[in-house]
Automatic annotation (TrEMBL):
CDD domains xrefs: ABC_6TM_LmrA_like
Residue intervals of the ABC transmembrane type-1 domain: 28-307
Domain (ABC transporter) ranges: 340-575
Name of this chain's protein: ABC transporter ATP-binding protein
Membrane topology, as annotated: Multi-pass membrane protein
Keyword Transport: yes
């Protein structure tokens, strides 16, 4: 399977070969067995001729009939084994393509995934990879064996009667040209069909992501119509493939019939004149029909090839996207609370996007609670995204422990951070799996400590199977406050040196808010905590508050200092944090 990225100019068939390279022995074995099967098939008319000749010459039929039977049996068995070997190899190709695609996908940069539609990505991993299987089982090998049959039949026919062969070949050339005209249309339609299936996945994904909103907005019918339009497009493209394939098929069939009539007429005359034996004419006609199947096979194989090539291009588009660079050398980074600093950081999400950070500078010492506040869109969550190195700033420096985070090895940097996103998701699985998600090695004592710290013991006691209870879509749905504390517990189990907590904007009830404040205060005693704060309780108990506005840092201070000195903060406190004025 291809390992390297950025090779847009490589021809798709080369990419296809790269997938099959590790499976060459199986392809060879399966191919040879299939050919042997075809060869047995090819011998059939000749063997039939020996039976007819023996009959005509009053010789024993035992030998020729046994030969014919053996050819049928051997051909069937060997062909079946060859087919199995190829199917098996096809599954292997699909498996390795899926594996490499998934591992590539999870290592993509966040900025790349931002631009992709999840549903389309899903369809590339599931349905496009499936098309690779058919390329080798029904594509390449069928085509090779069809060619073999064609050539074999033509050679055998040449031995029997050159003149009749000329007639046959004339018809074949006409068919070949017709099929050649149709092929590019099949190719175009199959690419469009796959794009349409991907698009349908993307539309469906959008609906499922916002399922409740769709229902609450009464938008079911409209969304059904959107999915329907995408499905219709996929169907139309599929029908176009079927249309052109059958045009190619019927042309081959009509040509064979025409050739049959011509050969029967001319051949009959030649038999009458004694230039040709009856048995040879029969064998010739059998071979003529043998040509029909391989031509159909060629058309079918070519269609599969086109599907596969289109799929390989779509798969490759993902494989060519840049992945994260791990960088640096593994280093012992300790477990002490970390200090961080932003210096003149300038950042935008893309070259054509507006500036989000326009010279952000602040410093946070190790240990204690720092609150980031500011109007919506000021760039607070972006501070976290940059610290996690989901994106890279265009200029300026971000340091942790005084060292530029770009010099850190990425896994080391992230291991030092605990990250709780706004509306942090609960993953499908047990509560224990959710807690251990970021720290697989954590022990029972660690779990108990974190559960007590995040005030989750009551929840665990209430759940029917405690930590082993399934939560999320397939199990018990947790409340907003519980989800948030589970997310904090998950981040804390990592023993972060810096905890990044993006408070959800949704209002928590008084009990949950008190619990959250206690949790944050306690965690801040042990480690550095940086909170994007939307609540008064978090802001007032912070050691320092960084006020952000329009991509810059406007002021830094304690709640009291900022209330006295900063107008924006006063306004925020009065409105956003519900401070009595
Ligand atoms: N992944 C992204 N791609 C492109 N633009 C983004 C992305 N994330 C955020 N932005 C833009 O960057 C700006 C700052 O967003 P950010 O989420 O950092 O603000 P915020 O201060 O955290 O806001 P809020 O308090 O509403 O969460 C916004 O204008 C937003 O549209």
């Amino acid at each position: 399977m291809p390992e390297t990225a950025s090779s847009p100019e490589i021809a798709p068939w080369r990419l296809l070969l790269a997938y099959v390279r590790p499976h060459r022995p199986a392809l060879l074995l399966g191919g040879v067995l299939s050919l042997v099967g075809s060869f047995a098939g090819l011998a059939m008319p000749l063997l039939a001729k020996t039976v007819i000749d023996a009959f005509g010459e009053h010789r024993s039929l035992v030998g020729p009939v046994l030969g014919l039977t053996a050819a049928v049996l051997v051909g069937a068995v060997v062909g079946a084994v060859g087919r199995y070997v190829l199917e098996r190899m096809g599954e292997g190709v699909v498996f390795s393509a899926r594996r490499s695609l998934v591992s590539r996908m999870l290592r993509l940069r966040v900025s790349e995934v931002d631009r992709l539609k999840p549903g389309d990505l899903l369809s590339r991993v599931t349905s496009d990879t499936t098309l690779l299987r058919a390329v080798f089982t029904e594509g390449v090998v069928e085509m090779v064996s069809a060619l073999f049959m064609l050539v074999g039949a033509v050679v055998a026919m040449a031995f029997m009667d050159g003149f009749l062969l000329l007639i046959t070949l004339g018809v074949l050339v006409v068919v070949g040209s017709l099929v050649g005209l149709v092929m590019p249309r099949i190719q175009r339609a199959s690419t469009q069909a796959q794009v349409a299936v991907g698009e349908m996945g993307a539309v469906l994904d959008r609906v499922l992501q916002a399922f409740r909103t769709v229902k609450a907005s009464g938008a079911e019918d409209r969304e059904i119509a959107t999915v329907d339009a995408a499905a219709r497009e996929a169907r139309d493209r599929g029908v176009a493939v079927a249309w052109w394939t059958s045009i190619a098929g019927i042309s081959a069939w009509v040509a064979a019939q025409l050739a049959f009539v011509a050969v029967l007429g001319v051949g009959g005359a030649r038999v009458a004149s004694g230039a040709l034996e009856v048995s040879s004419l029969i064998a010739f006609l059998l071979y003529l029909f043998y040509l029909v199947a391989p031509i159909g096979q060629l058309v079918q194989g070519f269609t599969q090839m086109q599907n596969g090539l289109a799929a390989v291009k779509r798969i490759r588009e993902i494989e060519d996207l840049p992945t994260e660079e791990i960088g640096g050398q593994a280093a012992e980074t300790g477990t002490a609370p970390a200090g961080v600093a932003f210096q003149d950081v300038v950042f935008r999400y893309g070259d054509d996007r507006p500036v989000v950070h326009d010279g952000v500078s602040f410093e946070i010492p190790a240990r204690g609670l720092t609150a980031l506040v500011g109007p919506s869109g000021a760039g607070k969550s972006t501070v976290f995204a940059l610290l996690e190195r989901f994106y890279e700033q265009q200029s300026g420096t971000i340091t942790m422990d005084g060292r530029d985070i770009r010099q850190w090895r990425l896994p080391d940097l992230r291991a030092a951070l605990g990250y709780v996103e706004q509306d942090a998701p609960v993953l499908d699985g047990t509560l224990r799996e959710n807690l251990l998600f970021a720290a697989q090695g954590a022990g029972e004592a660690d779990i108990r400590r974190v559960l007590s710290l995040t005030r989750l013991e009551d929840l665990v006691a209430r759940l029917p199977e405690g930590l082993e209870t399934e939560v999320g879509h397939r199990g018990i749905m947790l409340s907003g406050g519980e989800r948030q504390r589970v997310a904090i517990a998950r981040a804390l189990l990592r023993r972060p040196r810096l905890l990044l907590l993006d408070e959800a904007t949704s209002q928590l009830d008084a009990v949950n808010e008190l619990r959250l404040r206690e949790v944050i205060a306690e965690v801040a005693k042990e480690t550095t905590v940086l909170v994007i704060a939307h609540r008064l309780s978090t802001v007032t108990s912070a050691d320092r508050i960084v006020v952000m506005e329009a991509g810059g840092v406007r002021a830094v201070g304690t709640h009291g200092e900022l209330l006295a000195d900063d107008d924006l903060y006063r306004e925020l406190a009065a409105t956003q944090f519900l401070l009595p004025t």
